[in-house]
Amino acid sequence: MLITIILLPGAYESYFGKDYVSLAGKNYSSNDVKKTNPGAYARYRKEIATLTKNLLGEFAQEKLFELASKDAGLPVDDILKQGFSPRVPKEEELLAIYELYKGQLNGQSFAQARLQILGLVQSQEEQEYQRGKYRELLQKYPIEFKIKEPEVVRVSISGKNNPSIGNETAKITVIEFSDFECPFCQRSQEVNQRLREKYKDQIRWVFRDFPLPFHENAKYAHIAANCALTQNKYWDLFPLLFQYTGKLSKAKVDELAVQAGVNKKQFQECTENPSAIQKEIDADIEEGQKNGVSGTPAFFINGIFVSGAMPFEHFDEIIQKELKN
């Protein structure tokens, strides 16, 4: 018997899995988000790929344990513990751990906390042993993911009239939105420096201001950096500000500016009349927010959005792909 399905207006998209929101009689899909907020769309696509990998990874792990259990003739729960024998640490080792963490033990003496510390040490060693066993299982039953790479979404964002390092015509342009008082931004500077050293003339690095409102000293630090820029001392002051993240009082910033070699009188005149510079900082914040920046650090690598202080390898992989294009 032939069954004909008649879809009412609007139901066609839902039936075939197209998600959308309707407003004032007009439908909007993720493609509209892609056009108006590419940064948010890029995060959405990346999160989908991550969730897919996690879902398939958990499933594959269960199947791996089932195969190993069948081959070894052991219950699944015993597979990773097979061959493990807990070590009994020496008293000196337990005492050293106690001294290291006694501030977190609610005033317990070593005798009171000993069994707790012993259990922690043995638990950590068992976990390390299990990780090794799992790696062995992966050698015998390899897991290979075949997941479609997230769509590359590029944001058209300007680096003009902002301080930069590197070749103006470099194939790779990294635009960093950052905050001198942000500890994650401070942490990312080592990775940023490594990338610049590795790629040299192939990379241009642009810095844009994004002082967060809850970092009360950040605003003045960014004003000071831009005042140093007018004297061509920006990149002399830049590393000093990040060196003292979390300690950037006005007095400290002024001290660092002098250390960086600014003309003290000109610098003071600039910081006391910062309206033009504040306008430029506000423009940076506005453009960042418009393109999906909600926290720091945030980066655009040839327009590809990267949020957070990611490891060197994450940036390196993107840059390598860009250089091949």
Written description of the protein model:
This protein is α+β, with helices and mostly antiparallel strands. The chain has 13 helices and seven strands. The strands form two sheets. The protein has a five-stranded mixed beta sheet. Strands 1-2 form a two-stranded antiparallel sheet. Strand 4, helix 7 (183-199) and strand 5 form a beta-alpha-beta unit. Helix 2 crosses helix 3, helix 5 (91-101) packs across helix 6 and helix 8 (218-229) runs parallel beside helix 10 (250-259). The longest helix has 35 residues, at 38-72. It starts with 10 loop residues before the first helix and ends with a helix. Residues 1-17 have low confidence and may be disordered.
Radius of gyration: 27 Å
Number of strands: 7
Uncertain parts: 1-17
Please give the count of helices: 13
Largest sheet: 5 strands, mixed
The SS-based structural class is alpha+beta
String of helices and strands: HEEHHHHHEEHEHHHHHEEH
Shape: globular
Descriptive terms for the model:
5-stranded mixed beta sheet, alpha+beta, 10% strand, 325 residues, single chain
Give a nutshell description of this structure.
The protein is an alpha+beta fold and 325 residues long. It contains 13 helices and seven strands.
Describe how the helices and strands are arranged.
Layout: H1 11-15, E1 20-23, E2 26-29, H2 30-36, H3 38-72, H4 76-79, H5 91-101, H6 110-140, E3 164-166, E4 172-178, H7 183-199, E5 203-209, H8 218-229, H9 234-243, H10 250-259, H11 264-272, H12 275-290, E6 298-301, E7 304-307, H13 312-324
